[in-house]
Amino acid sequence: TIKLAKQALLALEPEQLSAIDHGYSGCWINSDYGKVNQRWLLVHSEQATKREEITFFKNLEANIAKEIKALRKLSKKPFACEVDAELAFNDFKKQCDLLGFEQGTLIKLPTYSHSGRPKTDEAPTGYQYFIEAAPFTDLEKVKLARLKVGMFILATNDTDNEALTMAALLAHYKSQQKVERGFRFLKSPEFLTSSIFLKKPERIEALLMIMTLSLLVYASLEHKIREQLAQTEAFFPSMVKNKTTAKPTARWVFLQFEGIDTLEINGHRFITGLQEHQTQLLKLLGRLYEVVYS
Fold it and tell me: Worst-scoring range by mean pLDDT, 22-26, 148-152, 254-258?
């Protein structure tokens, strides 16, 4: 949406991109956007490109048709004066990501105080203005939209830190996902429902402390599960049917451990409902976890 960002993407040549890691490449550009000295890292993701290109070309024709439909709707709208019509048309052109327009014209039509055909010498009570424009597919806009596929920009005002390499900035950006997942955990309906019934600030603070500790345990366990799976090149059933993953969420693992029961017969304790993938994960996590489920 920023004009400078669009210009940077249009001016970018493929040979300017340097490999970062794991399917990412990028290049630095300097910017003073908002009168603040910055460095922008233009990042290209191979995985995102493959994923988004399919959607881009699939939706291209539909998006063009959508903008044409919006133009038809606008052309039927009456305006009280030329200025209003011109402002509306200029705003509409800014909203179009794929269409360009020949010089638009305004159609001036008289209005009368009654319906039906006016008399020959009857003077109109006023005028209405309608927009008329011939649209075309703007190839420059299509090119810009295509360039955005698999591309994103990371901006920093840390312009003098040589240690802040492209790989380091990308790593900082990707690490935000962990924090965002943590907030998603804290905002879960189970916790929010409980906080409704807490009227005193100290009670809310106490619940927040419990939530934070729970998040700490949750994140630690998730990290350990993924670490052990990666080290042993093992997998856990995915949320997608008949698929496996090496990076399950702790929430998904908890759901997979539902339906396990303890049965006592004559003083002897038995665990029922434990399946092979659950037993394998407990073994990877360590003896303490195996003891709980034995």
Answer: 148-152
Instruction: Calculate what percentage of the chain has a pLDDT beyond 70.
Output: 91
Do residues 104 and 56 touch, judged by C-beta distance below 8 A? no
> What is the rounded end-to-end Cα distance, in angstroms, of the chain?
58
For residues 121 and 249, what is the distance between their CA atoms, to the nearest angstrom?
Answer: 79
Per-position DSSP letters for the chain, written without gaps between them? --HHHHHHHHH--GGG-EEEETTEEEEEEEE-GGG--EEEEEEEEHHHHHHHHHHHHHHHHHHHHHHHHHHHHHHT--BSSHHHHHHHHHHHHHH-SSEEESPPEEEEEEE-SSSSPPPTTPPPSEEEEEEE--EEE-HHHHHHHHHTTTEEEEEES--S-TT--HHHHHHHHHHHHHHHHHHHHHT-HHHHHHHHT--SHHHHHHHHHHHHHHHHHHHHHHHHHHHHHHHHT--EE-SSTT-EESS--HHHHHHHTTT-EEEEETTEEEEES--HHHHHHHHHH-HHHHHHT-
* CB of 43 closer than 8 Å to CB of 151: yes
Q: Go through the chain and tell me how many residues it has.
A: 294
pTM over 0.70: no
- What's the pLDDT tens digit per position in 52-94? 878 888 888 888 999 999 999 999 999 989 999 999 999 998 8
Contact 164, 149 (CB under 8 A): no
294/102 Cα distance (integer angstroms) = 76
